[in-house]
Amino acid sequence: MGCVRKREKSWNAQVKVSGWRSFTKTFKTKLSATEWVVNFEKELRSKTIPEKDIKNLKLKNLFNKYKLEILPKLKSYKIVSYKLTVLSRSWLGDIVVVNLTKRHLEQFCEDRKLKVKEGTVKSELMLIKRIFKIAIDKWNYGIPFDAFSGLEIPSPHKPRTRRASKEELTTLIFNAEKQRNKYISTIIQFVVETGMRRSEILKLS
User: Fold this and answer.
1) What's the mean pLDDT in 117-129?
2) What is the pLDDT of residues 72-88, one digit of tens each?
3) Domain segments of the chain: what residues?
4) Which of 52, 75, 108, 130 is deepest in the core (most CB within 10 A)?
């Protein structure tokens, strides 16, 4: 169902179709706004997934679909694949998508914080949120709510500022010189002087 309202010198058009969130857009003329409402309503109704197709859909079904269709195209395939396996096997994976609430996500955070760091919990939540967005935008699942709205996202890891002491570096280099790879000691000293990461050093070769 759509409507058009006058807002000062412009016209605000709103479309709300069952199974979708509300969509709004501003136009200069009433005619343009009305035409957009009619056409956009038709577009949404043509894309709406029948209720029977999502009423029993579980989160782990979404995770698996993402793993099969989206993940193979990403460089982080192995890492994300492992995360999705963990999420699918957790109690959250058995929650039916249309029943998911913010409280479920909050409890998931509390449970995960007992096992992993907050940075990991944040990463997992962002992954779930990204999958939900793809489910709505790309797969056209009519999920009419946002369980993430108002959810407090855990803070990432606090940066570490500790540096190795001279004695620790001396011991580290001394033992590195005993390694079969004769370059280890030189690489360690190079890292200390430049602060470069392993990936950055490897790109130099």
Assistant:
1) 91
2) 888 888 889 999 999 99
3) 2-48, 54-137, 166-202
4) 108
